[in-house]
Design a protein that fits this description.
This protein is α/β, with parallel strands linked by helices. Among the domains are: about 70 residues; about 35 residues, no CATH class. The protein is about 35% helix and about 15% strand. The strands form 2 sheets. It has a 3-stranded parallel sheet, sandwiched between helices. Strands 4-5 form a two-stranded parallel sheet. The protein is extended, with a radius of gyration of 26 Å.
Amino acid sequence: MRLSRLLALTSAVALLAVAHTPAFALDKVRAAKSVNTAWSFIPLNVGAAHGIWEKYGLEVEISGLGGDAKLQQALTSDSVDFGLGSGPSMAFAVKGSPVIAVAAFAGEPRNISVIVGAHSSIKTVADSPVHEVKIPAASALSRSCLASACLFADCNASPS
């Protein structure tokens, strides 16, 4: 009888100890991507989808914005804690934006493309019947990529 009382008392104390252990809230972090579709920013979403951030005590709120300028606005207004942007986004720090450029984690842009159907007669930029391509902003990385391509064809890359 004495052993069962001791076991019951030990179990009750253990249960109370677990019940009164404080629950720790996850630290909320607001992250923004300059564009929602860039493949180089996907690790942020993968970490969220697979519970990696929670494992390290983080609740990550992810936003996709409409370009580097909007990312800078969000950072400056303290709407986000950190942002993922392109090389031009890092240049804002040099130009006086109150942000800190931390790292470049990708090489040349491999996520900008013009896609045509498999049976299209267009095989190069010069084959395109389109002579003007719209891009998001005059300072956008896509402009420099398209401008390089347009050197070899009769087209104009202009901001929309």
